[in-house]
Amino acid sequence: MKPSGFLLSTLMHDRGGKIFLTLLTIVAVAVPLLNMLPETSAMHVSTYTVTLLGKYLSFAILAIALDLVWGYCGILSLGHGAFFALGGYAMGMYLMRQIGDRGVYGDAELPDFMVFLDWQSLPWYWYGFDQFWFAMLMVMLVPGILAFLFGWFAFRSRVTGVYLSIITQALTYALMLAFFRNEMGFGGNNGLTDFKDILGFSLQQDSTRIALFMVSTLVLALVYLLARFVVNSKLGRVVVAVRDAEDRARFIGYKVESYKLWVFVLSAVLAGIAGALYVPQVGIINPGEFSPLNSIELVVWVAIGGRGTLYGAVLGAVLVNYAKTYFTGAFPEIWLFALGALFVLVTIFLPRGLVGLLSKMKNKNNKTGSAHETTG
Amino acid sequence: MLLRGNESRTGLFFINLNAKIMNIFSSILLAFIFFLLNPLSLYAQPDADDPFVVTIQQLTTKNFNKKSRILQQLEQLGDPRVQPLLQHLLDGNLYYRKKDKLMVTAIKQDDEYLITDVTTSENLGSVSKRKLKKIGINNTLRKQLREAIAKLSLAHDDAAVRLAAVQQLTENMTLDSVSLLRARIKSERDDGVSEAIHTAIALFDMASDDKAIRLQAIQALAGSLQPIANNRLNALLAKDSQGQFVEPDKDIRLAAKTSLGEIETRLKLYQFIETVFFGISLGSVLLLAAIGLAITFGVMGVINMAHGELIMLGAYTTYVVQLLMPNYIEWSLFVAIPAAFLVSGLFGVLIERGVIRFLYGRPLETLLATFGISLLLQQLVRTVFSPLNRAVETPIWMSGSWEINGALSLTYNRLYIVIFSLLVFAVLLLIMKRTSLGLQVRAVSQNRKMAKAMGIRTGWVDALTFGLGAGIAGIAGVALSQLTNVGPNLGQAYIIDSFMVVVFGGVGNLWGTLVGAMSLGVVNKFLEPWSGAVLAKILVLVVIILFIQKRPRGLFPQKGRAAENS
Lengths: 376, 566
What we know:
The structure holds 2 protein chains of 2 kinds. Chain A is mostly helical. Chain A is 73% helix and 2% strand. Chain A has one domain (2-375). Chain A has helices at residues 2-13, 15-36, 47-72, 80-99, 112-116, 132-156, 161-180, 206-232, 234-244, 246-252, 256-282, 292-305, 311-330, 332-349, 353-365, 370-375; strands at residues 192-193, 197-198, 201-202, 284-285. Chain A has a two-stranded antiparallel sheet with strand order 1-4. In chain A, strands 2-3 form a two-stranded antiparallel sheet. In chain A, a hairpin with a 2-residue loop joins strand 2 (197-198) and strand 3 (201-202). The radius of gyration of chain A is 21 Å and the shape is globular. By secondary structure, chain B is an alpha+beta fold. Chain B folds into 3 domains: 51-140, SH3 type barrels (Roll), CATH 2.30.30; 177-248, no CATH class; 273-393 and 425-565, ABC transporter involved in vitamin B12 uptake, BtuC (Orthogonal Bundle). In chain B, 69% of the residues lie in helices and 6% in strands. Chain B is built from 22 helices and 7 strands. Chain B has helices at residues 2-43, 51-57, 64-77, 82-91, 139-154, 159-171, 175-185, 191-205, 211-221, 227-236, 250-299, 307-324, 329-354, 363-385, 412-434, 436-446, 448-453, 458-481, 492-505, 510-531, 533-550, 561-565; strands at residues 94-97, 103-109, 112-117, 123-127, 132-134, 401-405, 408-411. In chain B, the strands form 2 sheets. Chain B has a 5-stranded antiparallel beta sheet with strand order 4-3-2-1-5. A two-stranded antiparallel sheet of chain B has the order 6-7. The longest helix of chain B is centred in the middle third of the chain and has 50 residues, at 250-299. Chains A and B meet through helix 6, helix 7, helix 12 and helix 14 of A and helix 14, helix 19 and helix 21 of B.
C-alpha cells in the first residue's frame, strides 16, 4: 500500500499534525463520554455545547479548504462561503424532502415555502434530493462544478491576485442576491429550516446530535489527512511553486492553470462537505451564508491561525469562533470592534499567524511542543 | 518707533475695516427692514383708495344684479386677491362683519367661526355666527363666478396654475369654456399649457356633428401625452356587446387608430428617455462611489475595502451638519460637502499612515487589514449614532421634479446629483492632470523608485493621494445621503459595485471609470423592467465576471510603461 505508507511517513514529519490529530481523537472520545455523565456533574458537557463544537469542527473543515487555496496556492478566495453555502443548501434540500407531510401545510411532495408560494409541482432541480446518496453527491458536485467553471475561466485568462479576490467576492454576492429571490425555489429570505430527521434519526434527539458531532470529527480528520497528502505530494510541491513564482513555474513547463484549477476545485468540494455538516447541526441554511462578510471572516480565521500549515487554519477557526460565541453573548457591541482590530493587528504584526508566533517562541526558548498543548 | 508706527497703521486699518463692515451691515439691515415693512404697508392698513377694498365693500348689497356688475368690475381689476375671493364666494365662505361691514372669510370651527380679513389675510380670531352676515349668491352668479375664476386662472402668471385650470376645464367641457380656451390660446406662451389647451379643444371637437371637424380633432390629438386623450381615442375603437363598433364611421375609427399609434410612439420615446435618465442617474451614483476608489485602487494600487465606510462617514457628516444648523437646511449641503471631504479625508490619511503604509507590496494583506478597518468604522458609527438609520433632510430646492410633459418628469435630486458627479469628476481630472500633486501622484504610481530619486517625497504623496480618494468618498456620501437611507451599512451596499466599476473601466484610468459607471448604470436600468431589479444586478455582475476573464485589464487598459508594473 504505497499511498498509506507515504501518508504515514509524511505524518511522521508533521509534528503539528500529530498533535492536532491526537487532540482531535481525545475530543472525539471525551466529549460524548462527558455528555453521558449526569447533568449535575461538574464535568458534564451539555448537548448544546456538543452541537456548538460540531459547528466549530465544520468551520475547521472549511478553514482547511481555504488554507489549501490561499496558504498553498496563493489564491485569496473571498467567495469560499459560496461553496460552503451551496453544500449546505444541497444538504438542506435533502433534509427538506425528509420532512414529507409533517410540514405546516402537510404536503407530502412540496416543502412548506413552495405551498405558501402556491407552486403546483416540485421544480426539476429538486428531483432526487429525497435520496441521501444523491444529496451527498450534489454536496460535492455542485460546488465542484461551479469552482471548475469559475476557475477554468479565471485561471485561463490569468486573472490573478486582487482581481481574482474581487471577482470571487462578486460571485458570492451575486449568489446571495439570487438566493434571496423567492422565485429561485430555495426558500428565499428564510432559507431552508424546520428540519425533522436525517436518515430516519430525529435531529432533535441527543444521540443524533452526538453522532453528528462524531461524524464531524471523523470527517475533519480525514479532510486533514487528505489535504496533508495533497500538499506533500509532488502536485503539492508544484502548487507551492506556483504560489511563490508563478511565471517561473510556467516557464519551467508546468501547466500552472491546471494545477490551480485542481486545487481550487478540491478546495470547493471540501468547503461543500463542511457546509453539509454544518446545516444539520445548526438547523437552518439561508442566503445570509453567501454574504461576502462570511467569506472574509473565514479568511481571518486562517490568517489568525497561520496559513500554509493546515492545522493553523483549524486552530484559527476554533479560536475565533469560540471568541465570537463568547463575545456576541457577553459583549455584543465589542465583537465587531474585536474582529476588525484582529484583521488589522494580525496582518501587520502576525503575518504567519498564531502558529508562526508559537514556532518563533519555541525557537527562542528551545523548548519542546508544550506551547502547543496549552493553546490547542 | 517702528513698532508704534505699525501699531497705528494696523489700528487705522481696523477702524477703516470696521467702518466698511458697519456700512455693509447697516445697508443689509435697512434692506431687511424695508423688506419686512413692504408687505405690511400694502396689507396692514387698508387703504381707502385701494380699488379692491372699495369694490368688494359694495358686495354687501342684497341685489343680485348689482352683485353681478360688481363681480365684472372685480374681474377687470387684475388684483391677485380677486381669484381667491371669488373662489370663497363660490364656496359660500365669504361673510362680512355686522359691526363694521369688514369682508372676511369664515371657516366653521366647533360652534364658532374662524374669520380672516379678505384684504389683508390677517387672522381675526373666532367669533359667533350672529356677528357675521353671509354674502348670498344665486345660480346665475354661480355660473358667472365659475367662468370668472376659470378666466382668471387662465390668465394667471404661474404656468402651473394655468395648466391646472385647463385640466379642470377639460374634465367637463362646455361651449363657454371652449370659447374661453380659444381666446386664451392666442396669447398663451407656455408650451405645456398650450398643448393642454389644444388637447382640450380637440377633445371638445371630437363630439361635434361635423365629420370634418371630428377628423381634424382626432388628428390634432395625435401625439398628445394626456391620458384623457388616450382614453377618448380608445373609446372610439371600442366594441359593444354584440361585437359591433360603437363608432359607426369607418374613417373616424381609422383616424383614431393612427392617432393612437402616434401617441404610443411618443410615449415609448419618452419612456426610453426616462430609462436613459434613470440609468445615467444610477451611473452618476456609481461614478461618485467609484471615483475615489479609482484613485486609491487605480492609481495607487491599494485595495481599500473601507472605501464604502468612508462614503458612509460622509453621509453621517451631512447628518451632523444638519443637526448643527437646523435653521439653515437649505444651505446645509454646501457646508456638508467640504466638511465631509475633510472628515473622510482625515480618516483616509490616518488609515494610510497607520496601517496601509506598512503593507505596500502586499495587496492581499492590505485587503484584509482595510476590511478590518471597515468593520471598526461600522461598529464605531453604530456605537456613536445607534444602529438605526438616521434621517437626513432634503433641502426644498432638491425636492420635487421637473415636469417636462405629461409623460416625462425628472426628479431634481437625481438631476443635481448627475451634474454634481460630473463636476466632481472634472475637478478630479484637473487635479490629476494639471496640478503638481497630480503630477507627483502619477510619477509615484508609475515608478516609485525613480520618483523618489527625483526628490518626490513618496510617503507624503501616498498619504495625500489616499486622503484625496477618501475625501471624494466622503463627498459621495453627501450625495448618497439625499438618495438612500443613512445607516451603518450604507457603505457595504456600494463597495462591490464600486470595485466592479473600476475593474470594468480599467484600473488607473479615470475616463474608464466614467464610461464604466455610466454604462453599468444604463445597462442595469434597461435590464430592470425586463428581468426585475435583483436579477438585473446579478446579470450585470455575471457579465462583468465574464468580461474580466476576457479582458483582465478592463475597457481601457493602461498602455506603455505604466502597464508593466500592474
